[in-house]
Amino acid sequence: MANIAKKVSWSSRGDEPAQGEGTPLLNGTGAARYSRQVTCLFTWYLESVVSRPKEIPHNEKLLSLKYESLDYDNSENQLFLEEERRMSQMGFKCLEMSRWLVCALIGILTGLIACFIDIVVENLAGLKYQVIQQNIERFTETGGLSISLILWVLLNSAFVMVGSVIVAFFEPIAAGSGIPQIKCYLNGVKIPRVVRLKTLVVKVCGVICSVVGGLAVGKEGPMIHSGAVVAAGISQGRSTSLKRDFKVIMQQFLKVSGLAGGVLFSLEEGASFWNQMLTWRIFFASMISTFTLNFFMSIYHNKPGDFSNPGLINFGRFDSDVSGLLGALFNVLNYWLTILRIRYIHRPCLQVMEAVLVAAVTATVSFTMIYFSDDCQPLGEDQLEEYPLQLFCADGEYNSMATAVFNTPERSVRSLFHSPAGSYNPVTLGIFTITYFFLACWTYGLTVSAGVFIPSLLIGAAWGRLFGILLTLADPGKYALIGAAAQLGGIVRMTLSLTVIMVEATGNVTYGLPIMLVLMTAKIVGDYFVEGLYDIHIKLQSVPFLHWDAPATSHSLTAREVMSSPVTCFNLVEKVGTIVDVLSNTSTNHNGFPVVSRLSDGCEPGKICGLILRSQLIVLLKHKVFVERARSRLNQRKLQLKDFRDAYPRFPPIQSIHVSQDERECMMDLTEFMNPTPYTVTQETSLPRVFKLFRALGLRHLIVVDSDNQVVGLVTRKDLARYHLGKHGLEELQLAQT
Amino acid sequence: MANIAKKVSWSSRGDEPAQGEGTPLLNGTGAARYSRQVTCLFTWYLESVVSRPKEIPHNEKLLSLKYESLDYDNSENQLFLEEERRMSQMGFKCLEMSRWLVCALIGILTGLIACFIDIVVENLAGLKYQVIQQNIERFTETGGLSISLILWVLLNSAFVMVGSVIVAFFEPIAAGSGIPQIKCYLNGVKIPRVVRLKTLVVKVCGVICSVVGGLAVGKEGPMIHSGAVVAAGISQGRSTSLKRDFKVIMQQFLKVSGLAGGVLFSLEEGASFWNQMLTWRIFFASMISTFTLNFFMSIYHNKPGDFSNPGLINFGRFDSDVSGLLGALFNVLNYWLTILRIRYIHRPCLQVMEAVLVAAVTATVSFTMIYFSDDCQPLGEDQLEEYPLQLFCADGEYNSMATAVFNTPERSVRSLFHSPAGSYNPVTLGIFTITYFFLACWTYGLTVSAGVFIPSLLIGAAWGRLFGILLTLADPGKYALIGAAAQLGGIVRMTLSLTVIMVEATGNVTYGLPIMLVLMTAKIVGDYFVEGLYDIHIKLQSVPFLHWDAPATSHSLTAREVMSSPVTCFNLVEKVGTIVDVLSNTSTNHNGFPVVSRLSDGCEPGKICGLILRSQLIVLLKHKVFVERARSRLNQRKLQLKDFRDAYPRFPPIQSIHVSQDERECMMDLTEFMNPTPYTVTQETSLPRVFKLFRALGLRHLIVVDSDNQVVGLVTRKDLARYHLGKHGLEELQLAQT
């Protein structure tokens, strides 16, 4: 029975080159190169517009092997059956109750975090703008406005530097909106550290700094991420929660959206494994979260009991129709920029420098725009403008450009939607749109916590309003809404949930159809040129993301061609030494092993008996559950399901478990612990069929057998994710270790 | 190779009695008994409250074999692969486009039907109430009010008789709300004739008659059913639409609800097989439908362009908290009543008589209540009352009871929600609640097209308002809303979609939490006593309905115990005579046959090669695709996938295909036509695992194999649906042919 576990990497297959071969890895360590290139930071940005992206090698055509997959399949081994038998009817009901409680808790906590972010941003930004406003007012007449500019730049840079430093040095995964990561997580890809407490703290502080620092960012994406962390954290506190990580997610979305929007978002964006109870629980948690937020915000605003603030962006009621070419342009530019960033800017200090640079440029550009703007508007009585800047306008008037840029982006959006006709002149809107477009595009992807929702809405609202004014239409505000929807749709390309969100935000079902048509047009137009922003970023990170369906025209591919083989299998009764060797092999790092019954010669692949996971084997090794010991420890406690659960989610690495030379010769009986009925398919099964099984059941390993039920291969997530429909038909991505 | 197909009924298994044995079938033909019992119609209703339901034999513990299952699995045979290979990229895009067009068409048609129903009901009911109102006014002082009563009774009875006759004699499946049937259809059970054009016509006319006839019914359920028929009809027009039947459904729900409500409804209520594209298409069709409806209704009301009518029930904004015991009582009463109906009233003429009786009683009771009511209210200036009855009130006043009962139920609901405090006195509301409760309970299940949504809302609104008045609260209208939500939740038990519908109807997210809590409380309280109304009716029809999850504690059941065996299998190359004999066997009527490769002795069960469907075999027989003929018709056209599609959905019965004695001796090669990779499981697979596979992939047949891949059994829907969690743990339903 020696040499039973074949030492093969199941990522290297006979009929193709080994992983990533021939493609320069972008995250290489060419440190010497950097120093030469730090000096020409600006040249790169010039390049980013001029150079053709195809000439730059990047990892979009690779599939990273560093991401692990989540496993929603239940190991129905004997321990599990025993536990179920012991459990009473009452026990089930308690379990059910506790799940609802967990959901309520998640909702409450998420709502509180959202509150915290809101209140802190409101106060800090208010303080900042007040200081600058007073300063500008003081110097407007005496003529030292350059001092005001410096003050503004310094304040912004300071905030952004703090936000950028904590992200770059403490938790890089907290950069960006977090939505691509959550999308992957929902899809079943385990992104390392994405749901840690540290990530949450950095995210919350980071997003406060970015927004207060005046960057062209929103706080919605990071809030979604925060909600997901809370949800995963709370549900991981209980050990049966493998599936719950997932159950939990998009409460915070509710903050922006409403109710159904959040549920549909989780549905649209990931949900590789769905059931009704899940929907209910997400919905419930969403409700609680919205309620908590509204409750505390109304107390904060000294109107306790007034719950009439159903979201941050309750726009109004509008309709119209436009499209989303700008979205595609945004995404293409951001794509080039991201490739440049991957290539050149991946040292934390460089990242911080870039963020501070963007903050300074944003402040300077804003100031310049306000300074040269001559769009003076009379101060209304309703005081829609939070921080009206008089500057060079007559008394009783304010600078209209300042309303758009001297404000948090969220307030600007609201102003663009709700200000009466004539509040902005076309030149102001035109200049603002163009400037803000490039600023937002530059900003997304910086090493700060930052969402792209609000900036997209702002760009769209500005050009929508411009459009409305140019056509001399009565209510430019409604064009602002449609423009905002189109721009957001053109950038992130979520039609369904965005429609619901927009409809819920406007509170009028009747405008659903125009909004949906706008979003669909934006998506179709945009998709013609380039993918959605989130998908681009997911691709650039080489995540093995599974889409909803297998690529069309892939029915001719069969499991035989897709699967990895040969497979490392274990016997029903296996030698401890073999198991330890296989688990210790860092070059493969397999996570699931088919268990086979084999003839004693061991050359034939055996008949499938079950599937055992790395985590289970490690627990067994840790508890030294060896056949030889069974006799000597009759009085010892039997291993229970609880022992496996306690090890979740962070079971110890194999290196931490000491196995003596004597013990290596012992045998381990896997019968009781393996999953005795893993899902299998035959070699002739088509790729779409395998894909459907994999996706519908949330699998991590799917065993391929021949007509005699002998194991011939194993299909994992990366085997399916590598095929995609390119311009020339079916294409295959290469696998890379990074 | 003779006698290969074993003639076994796979519904009769060795270890249990044959189907339905020992249980009297309720739909028996004891015609003699009826005549004796017609005379004591009233006694039965008395019985219905007194007698204990457990003493009455009914078919709730049976599972009918007459329902077929829908099949969402794709037969990936060689013809399919060839067709895919031929299809260009362009072709796929066209197919995609045409699907969206179909959805748009569905939306438009459904919206038009809803318009039609609305307008006709509005006009006819208006006419009826005007005539009666004038009549009553004429006779109030002269004192011949009994003539008015007779007029009212006659008018109502006439309408209801027409509605009842067309349902009872032409299309019995059009009875009721249609929601239980659609729920089953979404679940994957093919209810005969439920999506036929004839059903649609009868449903539309029937619901108009019922509502105009003054029954305690609503028109929302039938509208949902109409939407489903339109959707199924249009998508069946195209031959690839097997899956589309399903894709399409709940547009009309939108009429009541809004956007997300409809989508969530389909999700909550059935969706045994779900994907993202589907969601989008349903959503799109919903949008189109709502838009069409609003557009035409606004033209009808001479306000073209005014789309501000986002639904029929745009309630207002409210909050509070109550529960749903009344719902359980309603369901229990209706359950007993339905059992009585199944037992005694199943001849069409009796059914019509009962419907007319109910109509007459409803009119009489309404008249009596108005007559004896002394709740006079001053006529407001806003004229909320559509048909104010003065009766014995002073001039300038109207009878308040008449507002509640002398009106379509929908208008009554609106009045209860929106009338200012003091419009109703408590006695009026109390009497109305009690009377209407029993009337609605009696009405649901009559042989007329009738929904239970609006009556539930009405009962709930009445007692909610009563509750509000008794607690002397400022705004009884908001209690009416919460009461309505609770009552509806208590009766139909859909928490998620109802919350969304209510929230969307009130247009305020903030009241989502109270409404949801109310609905959940109502559901929990109600579930403690009895199931939801729709579920009761589904159970009473013995439909093999699959719930979302397998019953808890069923992990110890394995596929070996669940499956039907032995299985009728075919060889890869099979004798035509054998096939014809198996297909002609009316006692089994199997629909899927595993194809096996077998040793020549034919005693062993063979290794699994594929799965072939009855419909495919019939097409093959019809085209005489025999091995012997292959040589002689080399110049003949090869069979294509199109030939199979053309046969869908109504392939000819086997009896219509003539097979000569010579041809019986021919052989048929199934290799090219069978599905070569059907899903299989091993005998040890647990019930929940089989269930999950079945549900997630929308299967109709799941083959059970042993460790040598030999076919040992077949799992179909009824094998899974028969297990349910009763009071004493896992219970098994019996199978019956009816």
UniProtKB/TrEMBL annotation, chains A, B:
**Which top-rank group of organisms is this from?**
Eukaryota
According to the record, the segments passing through the membrane are 100-121, 149-170, 200-218, 248-267, 279-302, 322-340, 352-372, 434-467, 479-503, 509-530
Keyword NAD tagged: no
GO molecular function list = chloride channel activity; chloride:proton antiporter activity
Please report the record's description of how this protein sits within the membrane: Multi-pass membrane protein
Q: What is its main location?
A: membrane
Which region ranges are annotated with the description Disordered? 1-24
What Gene3D superfamilies is this protein classified in? CBS-domain, Clc chloride channel
The places in or outside the cell where this protein is found are:
Membrane
> What are the record's GO terms for cellular component?
lysosomal membrane
Keywords from UniProt, A to Z, are: CBS domain, Chloride, Ion transport, Membrane, Repeat, Transmembrane, Transmembrane helix, Transport
Q: Which residues form the CBS domain?
A: 674-732
Q: Which family does it belong to?
A: Belongs to the chloride channel (TC 2.A.49) family.
Q: What is the protein named?
A: Chloride channel protein
Q: Which organism is it from?
A: Paramormyrops kingsleyae
Lineage of the source organism? Eukaryota, Metazoa, Chordata, Craniata, Vertebrata
